[in-house]
Amino acid sequence: MKAYEIGDFPSTGALTLVERPDPVPGPGEALIRVRATGVNARDFSIMKRVFFGNPAPTTHIPLSDNAGDVIAVGPGVTEVKPGDRVTMCHYWRWLDGPWDESMRNDDFANTRDGFLVEQAVVPAVALLPIPDCLTYEQASTLQSAGLTAWQAVVEAGRAKPGETLVTIGTGGVSVFAMQWAKMLGARVIVTSSSDEKLERMRELGADETINYRATPEWWEAVMDLTGGRGANLVVNNVGNGEVDRCLKASASGGRILHIGSDPVTPGRQYAPPQLPSRLALLILRDLTLKGVIVGSRRMFADLLKAMETHNIKPVIDRVYDFAQANDAIAYVAGGEKLGKVVIRMG
Question: Which of 101, 102, 241, 287 is most buried, most CB within 10 Å of its CB?
Fold first, then answer.
């Protein structure tokens, strides 16, 4: 089978195409034919070998997004059967209940090979059926960006009808955050440096938009748009340097959902938050600042059911073929996308 390895990516920005033996499922495992995958912010840290923990080896297969069908199952597997269309979380041990950091030790695309490969062996207990309403390409956008936004807005954020949510940027997490918030009846404000992208976000359902290049102190625009109260939820997925503006944009009792510590798009520089300002606003406005790390299998099942019930479709910017994987990665790195970029395996 064909696969891409990290290879010289840290220096060249390109993955290496290789041949690997076809895998065989063991007890409790399923062999899946990967139909589609995609690129997320975390994938760049892994491919650059600077992700949390030990760097992934250069022979590692990257990308955590996945959708495919079962080819074969190992001994003792009853959860799935050949022919099933399936997907799974990359932190596969987080089936339900609270997160535990030890779950990071078994992570597809990080501590295990990922899904930029034609076939993969995975734990059968982790798999979920893909609803008939979603194609492989659509289903492959959900495991990182979609699920992270789901936990931020639905699980941890508890967005309610009539509340105001601000999401920063127009990447996969931001677009999904807008979709989940609108599903729950919230008002959504989106920030971006591109007027063209902001227009597209309004077409997709955003109620208000702010160009943060034209308005660097975008929190002041949020205050104007909310009559001086601020936002009930702020989804920060662009790095630590934006924390203070998120705090300033928040209403009393607001929730700030912090996703990712470093910016991945061009034009944003890493900067630590202002500690005195942060502490003062946390107290004065009774704010909650919560880190968000993807979600569990149970959350993913709820997400898939909601998409089926509400007929929600992912926003896909571009689809590339397997042979164009490096082109897809370069396009995402350029920061021009809106929503998700998919790699179709064929």
Answer: 287
